[in-house]
Design a protein that fits this description.
Layout lengths: L8 H48 L2 E4 L2 E4 L3 H7 L7 E7 L3 E5 L16 E7 L2 E14 L2 E12 L1 H36 L1 H11 L18 H48 L3 H37 L3 E4 H13 L8 E5 L9 E4 L1 H18 L5 E8 L3 E8 L29 H11 L3 E6 L5 E8 L3 H11 L7 E7 L3 H14 L3 E7 L2 H9 L9 E4 L2 H9 L19 E2 L3 E3 L3 E8 L12 H10 L8 E4 L5 H11 L4 H11 L3 E3 L2 H9 L5 E6 H8 L5 E4 L5 E4 L2 E3 L7 H12 L1 H10 L14 H8 L4 E3 L12 H14 L3
Parallel strand pairs: 9-11, 15-16, 15-17, 21-22, 21-23, 25-27
Antiparallel strand pairs: 1-2, 3-4, 3-7, 5-6, 6-7, 8-10, 11-12, 12-14, 13-14, 17-26, 18-19, 19-26, 20-23, 20-24, 20-25
């Protein structure tokens, strides 16, 4: 819009209010974003500082130098953030790393102090927030600094920052809407003349194309003029349309009247020869009328297809050859030399996106025009030539041609430039409509043969693009996918789940590779650049969490109806799909149910009081070789000091250790063991139900529960299929199959319980302590912590 002299109300309203709102919103948004970031950082930095301080307090000086007993509380503090991965290191500045990741970054100018320093840096391709804090320890050579660096990824704090920012923006949005309401009232009041114009136009008759009258304000004068200009354009277009309809009616009426006139004269004529002459004239006029009608229909058809037809890949050379063959059957072509140049074009070089019907009609009209306007012995040459980007279709003749001064109006409707061969004037108009519908260029010029040269230039389809179009047009064929699973779960236990999944997923195959838990963990760490499996399944939850914390897992979006318990999932990357309580399995011939210990403390007393009786007849996991055994033992150690007391008592009875639950159960069934503890409940229950000499026992103080977990590696070749498999494991159908057709136990027990172990779980539902999938499981994977724990375990057992 162009403003007239004087101030503009529209500019005052729009520019002033919009600029004011925009500047205000930008400033407030910047302040709100900064506030949100600081608030999120302060909240999460407390976790980092608390974890760092907790580790610092467990530092000590030993004869071998500075050491640290990584506290579980440090990882528990970091686990209050349920999303982010964690990392840490304890080191002597400038000397060595005591424990943790050795490659953590730090700003070169950061000074070590007794208060935590926070900074953001990238580590392993991921953004981390770090806390660095130091402490001085008294050494023989004097006081020495020791530092702790703790880091977390920034996903959750970023989400919290965005949440705070979004909440603040929502309030701003409400205020802005109120402000915009006032602006709307002001604009509506100030620009009421627009409504008057709208009312005027709304109450007009469709035939009323008169200009809008009035003296509008300066702010809407441009709109007012534009409306009148548009009305003027409509008036001109209607005039042209009416003229076109009148021309069509006139052409048709004139042609039909001429036919009728010749027939009437023929009917009145008595002389046969004169009657024949009149009939010949009527026949010629009828032919012209038929041609006119066909041209009018063709013109309407071409315009319609140009507007609505879907262009498809089309080869021009066979299409042109078909038209030539059709034209040669016309009796008028007997003396005409019709030739085609284009056989040198290779297959695929003549491809365009086009409509075959429209192009056929255009080519027919060009040949027809050459016949009508040229001499009887005319020469017509059709040429097809391809370049790197386009293909040219040319029709030349040896007729009189069109003067250069008339070329610009030759394609106009009902324009016939030849008085000798007065036609409909629609032939070249149809060709022009076809060119416009295909985005092609139409060129009219003098032919090398002396007549008219009409050239249509189409855009070619490149070979690779043609292949893409053809492939995209075909339905994609289903390709078989092989899902490769690395698992520490016995194959027979997983077989019903695998069979059910394959039944629901046609074309899928599964390659199931079985490992021990520690071997599986080491195999994943040793992959390096090798292709990983698609799914990793293990009961060693701590080892699985460590792999996920290293950034090796892919995030999966579960459907809303699939929702595992909070303790059985972390970061939407690792998921527990079974409920596996640790149990005590006993030989009913060696231990009576009435004397079974009720709590873990009672178990230590029970072993001490029956030391000779159970010598060499108590079993449990080998915590050095078994990942699940180490997990159970370390989680037991967090429940109280009675575990070390239990280990000491077990050491005096010559405790036997095993790699797996199946061996413990077999030894108990054969009478080699009186009882074994911390066995996997699902495996034990299957044997107990078939062997009358075996019993299954839970404690009343607590019973650890682990879950078999699964995750999809980051570079899994079939990640989507792997996500479907994990979703199936967690689905209602998958959990039902686990409960009914496998020895495993589902996350939620069916009601009522259908198995003996299910009924026992129901009776003691409040005593089960699930091991949560959190970074706290990393505590006992710290190398110093692991060595310390294993050393205490071996010492307690006298090994």
């Amino acid at each position: 819009m162009t403003d007239r002299a004087g101030h503009s109300l529209q500019r005052r309203l729009l520019v002033t209010m919009a600029a004011g709102f925009a500047i205000l919103l930008v400033l407030i948004s910047l302040l709100l974003w900064t506030y949100s970031r600081n608030a999120a950082n302060q909240t999460h930095d407390l976790l980092l500082a608390g974890a760092a301080l907790s580790i610092l307090e467990r530092m000590s000086v030993s004869p071998d130098g500075i050491t640290v007993d990584l506290p579980n509380s440090a990882m528990e503090i970091l686990s209050l953030n349920p999303v982010d991965r964690v990392t840490y290191r304890v080191f002597v500045p400038g000397e060595r790393t005591i424990t943790g990741a050795e490659d953590l970054p730090a700003p070169p100018d950061l000074r070590l102090t007794a208060t935590p320093e926070f900074f953001d840096m990238r580590h392993d391709g991921t953004d981390f927030r770090f806390a660095l804090q130091g402490r001085q320890l008294a050494m023989a050579q004097g006081r020495q600094w020791v530092a702790v660096q703790v880091g977390q990824t920034v996903e959750w704090r970023t989400e919290q920052q965005i949440s705070l920012f979004s909440t603040g923006l929502a309030g701003l949005a409400v205020l802005s809407l109120i402000g915009l309401g006032f602006v709307w009232v002001a604009i509506r009041t100030s620009l009421s003349p627009l409504r008057q114009i709208a009312s005027d136009l709304a109450h007009r008759e469709p035939s009323d194309l008169g200009l809008v009258q009035g003296a509008p304000p300066r702010e809407i004068r441009g709109l007012f003029d534009a409306i009148n200009g548009f009305i003027e354009s409509l008036r001109r277009n209607r005039t042209l349309t009416e003229t076109f309809i009148a021309d069509v009616a006139h052409q048709t009426r004139t042609a039909l009247s001429a036919v009728q006139g010749h027939l009437s004269l023929a009917a009145d004529e008595k002389d046969p020869e004169k009657m024949r002459s009149r009939l010949i004239k009527a026949d010629r006029q009828a032919a012209r009328t038929v041609r006119l009608t066909n041209q009018l229909l063709a013109n309407a058809m071409v315009i319609h297809r140009s507007d609505g037809a879907t262009l498809q890949p089309l080869a021009l050379r066979p299409l042109v050859r078909d038209i030539l063959a059709e034209s040669l059957r016309d009796s008028r072509m007997r003396d005409v030399a019709l030739s085609f140049n284009g056989d040198e074009i290779k297959e695929g070089e003549d491809m365009i996106c086009g409509d075959a019907v429209s192009i056929r009609e255009a080519l027919r009209n060009l040949i027809e025009n050459a016949l009508r306007h040229g001499p009887p012995d005319n020469t017509i040459t059709i040429t097809l030539a391809a370049t790197d980007s386009d293909i040219r279709l040319s029709v030349e003749d040896a007729g009189p041609g069109i003067p250069d001064a008339d070329l610009h109006r030759a394609a106009e409707r009902f324009t016939s430039l030849s008085e000798k061969t007065m036609g409909s004037g629609l032939g070249l108009s149809i060709v022009k409509a076809v060119a416009e519908g295909h985005g092609a260029e139409l060129i009219l010029r003098r032919s090398r043969l002396g007549g008219l040269d009409v050239t249509l230039i189409f855009q070619r389809i490149a070979a690779f693009l043609l292949l893409f179009v053809l492939v995209a047009a075909q339905p994609s064929a289903g390709l078989a996918q092989t899902l490769r699973i690395f698992s520490a779960t016995d194959t027979p236990a997983m077989q019903p789940l695998i069979a059910a999944f394959l039944a629901e997923t046609p074309g899928a195959e599964i390659d199931y590779v079985e490992f021990q838990t520690v071997d599986l963990y080491e195999a994943m760490l040793a992959l390096d650049g090798a292709t990983p499996p698609d799914v990793v399944i293990s009961s060693a939850m701590d080892l699985q969490v460590d792999l996920v914390n290293r950034g090796l897992a892919r995030r999966i979006q579960l459907p809303p109806q699939v929702s595992p318990p909070d303790w059985a999932t972390w970061r939407s990357e690792i998921f527990g799909f079974t409920f596996e309580p640790a149990v005590m399995v006993y030989d009913t011939r060696a231990v009576a149910a009435s004397e079974l210990p009720v709590t873990h403390r009672d178990l230590a007393t029970f072993v001490r009081e029956n030391e000779a009786r159970f010598h060499g007849r108590i079993g449990t996991y080998d915590v050095v070789a078994s990942g699940i055994g180490y997990l159970y033992a370390t989680q037991d150690s967090l429940q109280g000091p009675q575990v070390l007391r239990l280990f000491e008592n077990l050491g005096r009875t010559n405790l036997k250790t095993f790699c797996c639950t199946s061996d413990m159960v077999a030894a108990t069934a054969q009478g080699e063991l009186a009882f074994a503890f911390n066995a996997i409940g699902s495996y034990v229950s299957e044997q107990v139900e078939t062997d009358s000499h075996l019993g299954l026992h839970f404690f009343d103080d607590y019973n650890l529960v682990m879950s078999r977990t699964a995750f999809v590696p980051m570079r899994a070749p079939n990640a989507e299929l792997a996500a479907q498999f994990i979703t199936f494991l967690l689905s209602a159908e998958g959990q039902r199959i686990i409960a009914d057709r496998t020895p495993l136990l589902p996350l939620v027990q069916p009601q009522p319980p259908s198995t003996q172990i299910g009924r026992q779980i129901q009776d003691r539902i409040g005593t089960f302590l699930p091991i949560r999938l959190t970074p706290s499981l990393l505590t006992h994977l710290d190398e110093l912590k692991r060595q310390s724990f294993l050393s205490a375990w071996k010492t307690a057992l006298g090994r």
